[in-house]
Amino acid sequence: MPKELMDGNRAMAEAAVRAGCRYFFGYPITPQSEIPEYLSLRLPQVGGVYLQAESEVSAINMVYGAAGAGARVLTASSSPGISLMSEGISYIAAAELPCVIINVMRGGPGLGNIAPAQGDYNQAVRGIGHGDFNLIVLAPNSVQEMADYTILAFELADKYRNPVMILVDGLLGQMMEPVEFKEEPPKQFPKPWATTGAKDRPRNIINTLFIEPEELERLNLKLQEKYEQIKQEECRCENYLTEDAEIIVAAFGSCSRIAKAAVEEARELGIKAGLCRPITLWPFPEESVRKAAQKAKACLTAEMNAGQMVFDVRMALKDRIPVHHYGRMGGAVPTPGEILAQIKKIEVQING
Predict the structure, then answer these.
(1) Residue 270 and residue 299: Cα distance in Å, rounded?
(2) CATH no., domain 238-351
């Protein structure tokens, strides 16, 4: 298939259509507005429905309804909009409904700005809503991966009956790169639980209200069992030049591409640096991180935030080596030179 030049937002939108998504409910917010713009034209062409809700709160509850009926459904927003969706996302997770949520992150906190940032890491992996639940969180770092992982997101959502978040930032959303869409038919999963009408079968009931503590505890235990299965089967990570690395740089999303350039420059200077790129932020690929750091003397996390992934990296490495952090915030993007300077500092500390 010939490649097309597309920005990341439109690539995710087109990939969703090719994955069988026929419903989008959302509200425009920069820097993800190209997603609803594209789908407002594209979905009617394939018999789908695009609906701009009056708010993000309304949008996520429309997602709940479509997911409950067994549809492949998508919503997309940016940082403060995702915050408004958090209650509905908790309901969807409790009801064990599959859906895909795209967050094209912007600078924060508060209204912030429309520049790229990675300040929603903690929100995505451990703080998006009330109660004990988890999203599967995918972090692509190229337009091609944004398309591929959108298709994967719908498959994982259906497989585990769980919401999946694609976490990118404004840099990736607006970046234009060649992308190739696979012609393979999307993988489908039976949905006998869906509320599609009960003329010839017992009624399906979707509910998240359990008055009795014991009954709600049973639901929670069931969810935790599912999350353990996801941890065992769905961790994804890319390790680059880590076999002999003395300094591991851990980075995700667009920042991992910048960090990769810094690692390559460090190698040219004779510094044994390597890159560890978590692709699933939840479940966090602890084993892959440990493998990447087998010979390392130190680790550096490079992020567009105040160090939100540091906790997960330290937990994975079990404090065997020091974990440093370098980050830019508020929409500022680190350069390869800035990360290289941090690598050099660490190299002096560990080797003198």
Answers:
(1) 17
(2) 3.40.50.920
